[in-house]
Queue: 4 jobs
Job 1
Amino acid sequence: MIPINLPKIGEEEIEAVVRVMRSGVLTHGLGAGPMVTQFENNFAKFAGVKYAVAVNTGTAALHAAVLAAGVQQGDEVILPSFTFVATAEAVVMAGGKPVFADIDPETYNISPAEIEKKITKKTKAIMPVDLYGFSADIKPIREIADAHSLAVIEDAAQAHGATYNGRPAGVFADAACWSLYASKNMTTGEGGVITTDNAEIAETLRLLRNHGEKTKYTSLMLGYNYRMSEIQAAIGIVQLEKLSSFVAKRRENAKRLSKLLAKTDRLKLPEETDKRRHSWYLYTVRLKDAAEAERNKILEELRKKGIGAEAYYSTPVHLMPYYRERFGRCSLPETEKAAKQVFSLPIHPSVTQEQIDYIGETLLNLL
Ligand SMILES: Cc1ncc(COP(=O)(O)O)c(C=O)c1O
């Protein structure tokens, strides 16, 4: 099976882990040991911002960022339903109410016009998601947020290497949250990081990460144990150095696959421009005018032929039992339609040119 994603770990990561283990410094009681500090400095530089705060998952990054933006009980946060559930979880964990807005069917990202329709007196923040690694349309979102004094918390969990107007994804948000989960463009096994240019937000995030402590055993606020370990950070330092080569290989694979799949008009293919570069975390196509059963049949056939194709996300968050029962039904026609028609194909850096050709030809034959 060619898996949909696969971590690419080399001797450098293994040696970095062994060095940390030999050092005996595995973590730091206040949140940032030498490896975590170095990783944060390097990641902030990569993300084009002043501060990076490393945590132990992307979900923790989202939760901490939502709290640092001041979201409290009863506040509304506008976000897409076409995302991984963690985006909505973060809002609920903070006591907020997720308010789902529909997507732009061209990019699958939250639609700025739909966001505007959902703003109320209770709205506190907007959470765009860079779905599949393609940056949300952040400029109009920033303008809407500024006009209504709302925070922008970007879910950049899939966006390592993506750009918007030539700048790294996340720079136009008040805080951007990245995942370092094993499937992502770069990984620390499990891990996350928040990037921001705002010193106050960064300081709050550091407190939230470590029990609200600035000095040991003196909590200044309610906090959590969201610390990243030194081992994770050591892996992250090496992975970050390799990230641009990983993304380049993903891009090369995406281009080759698109050239092949352009032979059919049954698929809408993913695109990028010089101004808005994809991270190519997921290469997602859409089976035009298809019913869900037809998409699912293709997925099944691809898997039988050893291709780990997946549908992200076949159940939008607003239709998941917990969210539907707790927050009520809402109408998101573009989200529901896309959820039935999209599927993603493997293009990660370990997929060879021969495998790309096999994936493309197999799919063309099935269609
Ligand atoms: C869009 C999105 N948001 C949030 C997360 C949560 O990250 P993590 O799995 O590191 O908690 C992920 C990845 O899993 C994701 O893809």
Job 2
Amino acid sequence: MTALCEAALDVLNTPDAVEKSQKTRRYAAAWRKGEIYEIGQVDLPDRPARSERPQLLAPKDMPRRAKAGSPRSKIALLHALAHIELNAIDLAWDVMARKFALGGFTRPKGFYDDWVKVANDEAKHHLMLEERLNALGASYGDLPAHDGLWESSEKTAHDFAARLAIVPMVLEARGLDVTPGMIAIMEKYGDEETARCLQIIHDDEVTHVRAGTRWFEAWCAHHGKDVEETWQDLVRTYFNGQLKRPFNHPSREEAGMIRDWYEPLAEALDSSESVA
Ligand SMILES: [Fe+2]
Ligand SMILES: [Fe+2]
């Protein structure tokens, strides 16, 4: 195989989570070594292939979380994160291989370099979380998982700018906001190993959001559009509801997310965050 889009299609059509992750890591290495060197063209499936397990449930049917700090709640958290990472692998390949209407904007080699790295990181994250689950006597597939994650991909399947505006710049940026709290909980309960994994995930995710802002800005520059206004319009159109506080401003800043872009779209300030 020499074309990146064919690698993408193969990963998207692979149902098993571990196999999907391992294929991603192999194809990413082949891209870095120049063994995969052309982009190619494919027709993508509407939804990526999934195993029978985990059972996918509507968000309202998901079981309630167990008490914080209990082994059951830790397994539930790691399982939910492993599910997010699995979807993130597919999303990274999808944005590389989808035939978006780009209005004359071409995705240059640097774009594919960035997203191959994202896909590779997500596969690493999924496998790390699977390892943590295994250490607790569980594995991915044991619990039901949220079936809403592919929705933002479907909603933005026709629009490249909307895809970047929502997936890296809203959803992955939200990951930067919530991960430090999870790290603190793991440390509080003495699970240094899980805390360390989550820190790696957080630090990698900064680069994913960074890739989102970089290519969103490039797309806006190509079309002569204002970045702030265009991003806010797309989020209002494609994202349900307001952005949640509290924000992790330092990590967002490192990722190129400007505070003036996202503050106007956030829920009203509450006492959990100062205005400073
Ligand atoms: Fe990730
Ligand atoms: Fe990511």
Job 3
Amino acid sequence: MKALIIGSSGQIGGFLAAGCAAGGMEACGAGVAGEEFRLDLAVPDSIKETFARARPGIVFLCSAMTHVDGCERNPELARRVNALGPALVAEHCRAAGARLVYLSTEYVFDGVAGPYGEDDPTNPVSVYGRTKLEGELAVLAVAGALVIRTTVVYSYDTAAKNFIMQLIANARSGAAMRVPKDQFSNPTYAPALAAAILALVSKGAAGIYNVVGPELMDRYAFALRACAAFGLEPSFLEPQFTSELEQAAARPLRAGLKTGKLVATLGQSLPPVDESLAEIARALK
Ligand SMILES: NC(=O)c1ccc[n+]([C@@H]2O[C@H](COP(=O)([O-])OP(=O)(O)OC[C@H]3O[C@@H](n4cnc5c(N)ncnc54)[C@H](OP(=O)(O)O)[C@@H]3O)[C@@H](O)[C@H]2O)c1
């Protein structure tokens, strides 16, 4: 079965591509940055052309407008990229009989009473969350579609701007880093996330699955754990309330996702934070 990874230049798409290669699954990439197929989710013709040429048996839709405050400032583009584009991808999958795996987020919740199970009522508080939820609903209309909700995804990747790479960059430059102390969620190690997604696919899983790390913690606590793992002096970290950060988009504060369904299906959870951070510490040396 040939896989099409939309957003293979991104953090999660990159680990999915590596996972497909390691598992012997033929895969090709699509995106706006010169991947094998040029696909812009905001340009319907580019989606149509990619499906006609790639003829995938399974599609991993990782692309999104992921900058949460950027979505708030440009809601029209956010909707085209995060909702209308995925709806078209879903349409093409349905027509081609291809399986569809869509990456979504805990930001579909309001963060009043997390952690959340897959069936809890959604109530996004930002444009990003609303447009990702609209994308989810379009994708779930395709029989057999798999929606993966995740959060705070991190990895060691010198080209990436995930939270951990930002932390390492700030620690090295000595620049202060303001970190929210009131946003709770589950840090999720990207290589383990990709492996779990591929394991769910191989089991024929469908519907919504939460795929996140096993521990719920606030972002400042996560930053302190990372500093300890990497031997960094944490004085550059400045714990703040979210309200002090003056961000354009509201954040779900008491968020996080429950993983009982994932554990029941795969028989294991993702590795604990300290184990994943230790792996990054080894890469740093
Ligand atoms: N990272 C997290 O903490 C997190 C948490 C929850 C959910 N998610 C979801 O997981 C997915 C992947 O996240 P990630 O961490 O891998 O994000 P990422 O590293 O920011 O990658 C996003 C990808 O989307 C591509 N892209 C952006 N605009 C596009 C467009 N108009 N058309 C086609 N491709 C476009 C980017 O291409 P360029 O690199 O060329 O811009 C990149 O390949 C997203 O759907 C996101 O909503 C991520």
Job 4
Amino acid sequence: MKRSIHGGAGATVARALGIDPAQILDLSASMNPVAPDPVPVIGRHLDAVASYPDPTTATAALADVIGLDAERVLLTNGGSEAIALVAADLGKGWADDCDFALYRRHLDVLDPNAARFRSNPHNPTGRLAGADETADVWDEAFYPLATGRWTRGDDAVVVGSLTKLLAAPGLRVGYVLADGERIERLARRQPHWAVNALVCAALPELVAAIDLPSTAGRIATLRNDLLAVLTEAGLQPRPSDANYVVCDDASERLLAHGIVVRDCTSFGLPGRMRVAVPDERDLARLAEALR
Ligand SMILES: Cc1ncc(COP(=O)(O)O)c(C=O)c1O
């Protein structure tokens, strides 16, 4: 059985094992374990698919919760589109080998002296950058879950993702935070109607339902519980500020119990796995599997 080389491989694994995807516990993609169920909210906005999307209201709603002018926010089709747009705008840039793979994928020219992309907290280690550390582009896909704040707020360009926070990878919603001039340039580069009508209609309600400080606090408690389970299993978890933890590899053992984690070989960390912080019920299943 092939292990997960990128997150979110639960459905593929279920197909390969010939079992119901609902039986898989997917701890490979690191979603917010305490997110409100997004489906009822989306369900209230299904009629939006009959019109072309207009992101104006949703952009204003997101800008409002972040505390920025709407001119400084661009909604995107997931964090991945935000990364692709910023990388294309910069042309050349740099990202470490052991950071999230999409920066290198979308940069035309890799130049160690050019603008540097960094994930914060780092993916896969989960460590937050120190206050004195810098980047030209911060990827804050997991920042709100780690800190309870929307953004670090320095001068760098920010690429963000609501995928993790809303636990809605199929919805496809992310953003760029930058000065108004860059946002205008990126908007001109963005394909028309990139952000779908369901996102445009449901986002104000979805973000209004998020209490960031409480979310981050609950995740910190659940992360400590996960660290205890992994330690008891002898897997030497590394310290993390995020909603995922890196530890020694036990992915084959977990797969036999229908639990999928992220193999860290492609991050340059062979022999390790990244495990999403689960909620209480899923943690009990993980602990049982490790026993
Ligand atoms: C660090 C990081 N940034 C960005 C993304 C992209 O997220 P999405 O395109 O689903 O919003 C991911 C997805 O795994 C990620 O791990």
